[in-house]
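Researcher: I'm preparing a figure for a lab meeting and need a structural model of a single chain. I don't have an experimental structure, so a prediction will have to do for now. The sequence is pasted below. Please return the structure as tokens so I can convert it later.
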Amino acid sequence: MAGRFEALNRLWETVRQSNHDFRATTDIFPILDPESVSRTLELVERGTRNGAENLPAKTAKALDDVEQRIVATVEEEKKKSHQILEDEMGRYSRGTSAKAVSTGSSTILTAAVICFA
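Model: Understood. Here is the structure written out token by token.
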């Protein structure tokens, strides 16, 4: 009986988790949530398993699989943030261009009204 409830509790925890690794914020760039990333990458489990096997070796120069996944995740989020910046800059540029055209049209219309009045 307890096994059923344990499975249900695990399912409930999974459903309650957000589907992204960011905290709610008003910052321009989303803040990466380390706890969520840790759960997603299963860092505790992998770290425990690797630690029991003394991996990576103290003399290792290259990153192990877990470290590479962390770096890849952070790099991917950095690329997404850069894309957000480019999108926002494009939106801003289009907005200022549209405003300039609107202002220019208004000036021309005002001048035409004055000329023909």
